[in-house]
Amino acid sequence: MIVKYVQGNSPLHLLDARVKIAGLAFLLLGALLLPLEESWLLLVLLFALYWLSGISLLWATAKNRLLLLFALVPFLVRVFFIGGVYAGAMNFIYIYFICFSSLLFIYSTRTHEIADALLFWSFPKKLVLMLSIALRYLPFLQRKLGHVRMAQEVRGGGDFFSLAVPLFHFVFLQARKMAVALEVRGFGAE
Q1: Could you tell me if 75 and 98 lie in one domain?
Q2: 2 lies in a domain?
Q3: C-alpha angle 165/157/173, rounded to 5°?
Q4: Helices (DSSP H) in 15-155: which residue ranges?
Q5: Model confidence over 22-69: pLDDT tens digits?
């Protein structure tokens, strides 16, 4: 899974982050209001947005297979228990659109631009700080997970716990360092 800014000079990369946030909110609201039968239009729109950004939708899908799996679960539930293949496919398109349009926002917008835009739209400062820290640490944690996975495979492990324990240990150490650094710079509990 890759969740970080992708360098580019496309019209979407150059667009102001405040406009992108408003556009993303409008797109997601429009997706929720769109009738189920017309959800294929969301896929066309998503292809167009990725084409406009210069980022391959196939690349984004391959790098984020977990999100693809997340979108497939409602499809399978609809197919086997509720409403058939057509309704399942439409649900898959909805969830796929929501996940990958949000990812496109992150791919085409630098973290500090996201933070500035959220502050412009009057989001709470603490929430913006937490979000920007999380977005900056995600690629770092993804690399660390890759290192832990390789180390555990060499040792003959690879199950969930052999990956989770070292990763959580690392995360808690980093969180403690971050808390100390923020406290030294004047960020307190109040």
Answers
A1: yes
A2: no
A3: 20
A4: 17-33, 40-53, 57-63, 65-77, 84-107, 111-120, 125-154
A5: 999 998 898 888 887 788 888 899 999 999 999 999 999 888 888 888
